[in-house]
Amino acid sequence: MNDVCNAPGLLPIETAIQNILGTITPVKDVETISIMQSVDRVLASDVKSTINVPAHNNSAMDGYALCISDKSLTYTQVGSVFAGQVFEGTLTPGQCVRIMTGAAIAPGANGVVMQENASVDGDKITFTAQPELNENVRFAGEDIAIDDVILKAGDKLKAVDVGLLASLGIANIDVVRTLKIAVLSTGDELIEPGQPLKQGAIFESNRAVIISALQQKNIDVLDLGIIPDDKELITNAFLKANELADAVISSGGVSVGEADFTKEVLNEIGNIHFWKIAMKPGKPFAFGKLSNSYFFGLPGNPVSAAVTFNQLVEPALQKLSGLGDVNPKMRFNAVTTSVIKKRPGRADFQRGTATINEQGDLVVAPFNKQGSGVLSSLSKANCLIIVPAQSGNIEKGATVSIELL
């Protein structure tokens, strides 16, 4: 099952994702917060409505609420009702009241005629056509009824969901607590941005990408910085992360170099579930479990780290956060504007730019530079082109699958 065409011993990415999601147990801790701070938070329990929405029958139009008389087009106006008011009394056939959008329907009224279809002569209102029963009336509970489940445990709240909660009079809500993720990078060659660049060294960028992405998701980040290629220091960093965080994300040290200690350390203090994925970029990727946390060992190359984070870590964190439905990323068909070079063996995630052409079709232009160290290609891209493991070169004009970034 682990053999993929010309990539023996590499785990198919689909299997890797299933393995990860099947291993992770969501966080269960709950906290109560104001709805005004709840966007992108995951609900800890179902939310039921305690009221009807709308709370009362109301008008969908500015116009006239009337008690319909079958034979007459002319009605007597006996009052007015504005939003937030109620009409005292009960209408009888042939009577109407002036009414504004959202105002409560007067007792006895059974329809609303919009003001554009009425002419006024003192208190006599004449309509252009026979009014219809219940037209332009919004009924109590039409949107939401008492005891309706409006949001479910595991839902991630959107801004409009916050408005929905407010419309029910809910001020505070129970959500799954924020995830705590530790992030570190390993390598003697790495230098923090802002420091002098020594000969043979490079500025470390993977943590910048990962931490920024995590902060966008309302995740608490513990930045452990750059850890030198020293087994003891790497071990201590992982032990600290395991104590303080729900998961640890490292980059570098999971390849096969003599100084790549991360995989060795993880194997000693935890349980590596798998290593090496049939994907490009991103083959050296490790996932497993420590005593108190999960770990994700990303490759050191910047594009490989970013793509494996996007494809493998993000779904894992969604499940860890308590999200009810961890759905596959949305993919779209697009026509490639040039040849896509590829060897069979690994699923390929190439960078490109997707646009709509003059004919209204979705097209994608792959970049010439697809190296795993070319981070600028990912910065310029607005999509990933997904080429299946078994595919070889793809000709210009062929339909491919893309994921928007």
Summarize the structure.
The protein has 405 residues and is α/β, with parallel strands linked by helices. It has 7 helices and 26 strands.
Give an overview of the whole structure:
The chain has helices spanning 13-23, 159-167, 206-216, 231-244, 262-269, 302-320, 375-380; strands at residues 30-34, 47-48, 58-59, 63-66, 74-81, 95-99, 111-114, 118-121, 124-127, 137-138, 149-151, 172-176, 180-186, 190-191, 202-203, 220-227, 247-251, 271-275, 279-280, 286-289, 294-298, 332-336, 347-356, 362-366, 383-387, 399-404. It has 405 residues and is α/β, with parallel strands linked by helices. The strands form 7 sheets. Strands 7-4-6-5-9-8 form a 6-stranded mixed beta sheet, with no helix packed on it. Helix 1 (13-23) runs parallel beside helix 6 and helix 4 packs across helix 5. It is elongated and about 90 Å long.
- The total count of strands amounts to 26
State mean pLDDT (0 to 100 scale): 92
Broad structural category:
alpha/beta
User: Strand count, sense and closure of the main sheet?
Assistant: 6 strands, mixed
The largest sheet has its strands arranged as 7-4-6-5-9-8
Instruction: Enumerate the spans where pLDDT stays under 50 for 5 or more consecutive residues.
Output: 1-6
Based on CA atoms alone, the radius of gyration comes out at 30 Å
**What percent strand?**
25-35%
Number of helices: 7
